[in-house]
Model the fold of this input.
Amino acid sequence: MKVPPASGAGASRATLDSAEVERFGRMAAEWWDPNGKFRPLHQLGPARLSFIRDQLLRHFEASAPAAAGLRPLKGLRILDLGCGGGLISEPLCRMGAIVTAIDPSEETIRTARAHSEPQGLAIDYRAARAEELATAGETFDAVVCLEVLEHVPDPAAFLVMTAKLLRPGGIIVVSTINRTLKSYALAIVAAEYVLGWLPRGTHQWERFITPDELGLHAAAAGIGRFQFDGIVYDPLRDIWNRSPDTDVNYMAAAVKPGARPSA
Done:
């Protein structure tokens, strides 16, 4: 696999784990199998998308008629950072957003393109790093970064880089996993070893991030205060729902200071 170069060796080590990229690249063909190795992400999709939609509409003060329509995010430039196979890129595009989606794995990007192009979805997929876009001066109304932070060596440095990609007044939405005993029991022991929802070794507990840590990283990156929402599993209905409980999976949204762009 060819990984695009970072802006420097130090930045590369801080914001990219090559072993992680290669591991996900080997599974690239399975991204769109709802019963395969990425089944948990398919199940998390509705809850994650609900949070993203609500945060973006609230922030950009979309009108009620537009928000009720099929394309409530029309005209917003959104970066899906660490897009994987496009599980979130595609619905964002369908809701009218102008989507740029990047991932360092060329295999993964090929899978994403192969799935979206027959549907006529105009998503700008790139096998690229955040550093490349920042160096080129690209900025976006919103950056979405889902299930990525727990896979990078230095989430603080990663958020600093991500903040450069936000326009003043833009919004960042992230999802990650809290570092608690409960998350170790459920996200690693149960999900990877007992239930087999995920391949063993998918997660490293020490890389999980508490909401307090995420808040400190955001402040250092010049991003505003995060608003949090948890996502919990309902075993009786086999679905994931939004919840105030952030003990395991959670999402967060924050705004970069500055004049708010209009939708």
In short: Residues 1-12 have pLDDT under 50 and may be disordered. The chain has one domain: 9-255. DSSP finds ten helices and eight strands in the chain. The radius of gyration is 17 Å.
